[in-house]
Design brief:
This protein has a single domain, classed as Response regulator (Rossmann fold, 3-Layer(aba) Sandwich), CATH 3.40.50. The protein is globular. By secondary structure, the protein is of the alpha/beta class. It contains five helices and five strands, in the order βαβαβαβαβα.
């Protein structure tokens, strides 16, 4: 499985990389713009990410915008059946942020930081990314 971890905190990117080391080949991006570029390039190269862990509060482009652009990129590529599993991993725990991500951006799930490894693994099982 290929995973993209997107967070402006180097510590958070390292921690998520450590959590995912046994499950995925992991790349990371430090803001939404870089993430969208990486996501689009991977899709164009035929090596799409199956999982994206996406923070909301970031410079250059926030996670809500990046989420929408990623879904637009998939739709434009005709990749509706094999959409990436996108999990918001953020400290933003308001109802409004969750609704925007889930209903407005089509994310699959939402984890509030600090991310617990067992919760992340449970979601990977839920979405059949791991056995």
């Amino acid at each position: 499985m290929r995973c993209l971890v997107v967070d402006d905190s180097g510590f958070e990117r390292e921690m998520m990389g450590f959590f995912l080391a046994d499950y995925a080949e992991t790349d990371s991006a430090c803001d939404g713009k870089e993430a969208v570029d990486m996501f689009s390039r991977a899709l164009a190269e035929g090596r799409p990410y199956q999982l994206v862990c996406l923070d909301i509060l970031m410079p250059n482009m926030n996670g809500q915008e990046a989420l929408k652009k990623m879904r637009e990129t998939e739709a434009a590529a005709g990749n509706i059946e094999q959409k990436a599993i996108i999990i918001m991993t953020t400290a933003m725990n308001s109802r409004e942020d969750m609704e925007e991500a889930i209903w407005g951006g089509d994310c699959n799930d939402y984890l509030v930081k600090p991310v617990i490894l067992a919760d992340l693994v449970a979601l990977m099982h839920k979405y059949k990314l791991i056995q």
